[in-house]
Amino acid sequence: AADKRTPGAAVCLENAGVYNAFRTAALNCIEIMFIPIILIFISLNCCTAQDATCKDDDGNIPPNVESSNIIKSTADLVWAQSARNVNDGREHSIARTLVPFTANNGDIKVLAYSDDPPNLPPRNEKSKAKGVLLIDNRDTDAAAWFVHTVPKFLAHLGGYSWPAAETAKGHMFLCLAFNEAHLNLVAKAIRYQEPFIYANSLSPELLNQHVELSNLITGAQIRVTPFLEHAKFATKAAANIQAFGKHTKSYSDMYARVLKNKFAANIRIWAPSDARSKSICKGQYQLRKIASPMQLAGSLVSREADSAKWALVEQKNTVCLTTNDYTVGEKKIPGAAVCLENAGVYNAFSFIAMKLTETIVILVLSKSCTAQVATCKDDNNAAVDW
User: Which residue ranges run through the membrane (predicted)?
Assistant: First the structure.
């Protein structure tokens, strides 16, 4: 109940492949044990050259430490081990994608937000949203939105450094490359999440072109009910995205009130919960908590040891990556959800759910084509969403 008074956010992805993967994991629930680290990357590939785009791996098998799995959109979607470990500061997908952020690049403007940024004490802000925007400042129409769950991660102009303390936890990453025409939609959804902005190099020209970016940076007050933002747009890979920002004043539960009702569908959720927040089995649409621990390929993952939070939207081929717990107090906390609809990604998750081992990073990639810069990168420095 307390969570109704807490702002929240949800970003929902509609994709059958991703949905089926999460659903398979949700149905395989047994006793106690957990996988030390599960890093989930959802990538929608775009074949651009460099900079503001998503990047994937190069094909070499890494040591069995902070390892990862990756999938690219081909005729036959299959999982393969990522070429690099997540702590590889030069070649891993995250490192490549965030080069314009961790090192100086005058052509790419950036904005980063986190409740626990690197080189700063944890913020008192209630929002748990973490992410980076990359925007090409030239004539190229390219932007990327990187969403993650890792504290003390990604110092602006500080080089790439993986926080070793987070290796024992589960984490999730999402990188989306999109046209700059959608910047206002993305910025407004982020603004409703009430983030703490710790890095900003956006030019006055960009802020004049995109008023919601300006509102995000200046912290313009939100005064209009229902204090919930619901943005819809497509990535350059033509993946349908729905992004939610839940303001504190909405006093809404991200799962029971926002996602279940907005999608008009049954949902299954993986997020820390309290005794008062039950599964909802009555009514037209149901909400079911995935039992913890959850079985993944013979190992069990504990909900409390996992920083990743997500929801499956049944019959919609959609997976939502979220920031909120499913507790009464979260209604008073801002929240975010990014939801992806994609049958291939959904099916890929269904397959990988039976293949997970001890330390895993999961990247899902779907191809499209853009020109240069503001996009997500893989380990091969190819432009992809993940």
Answer: 25-44
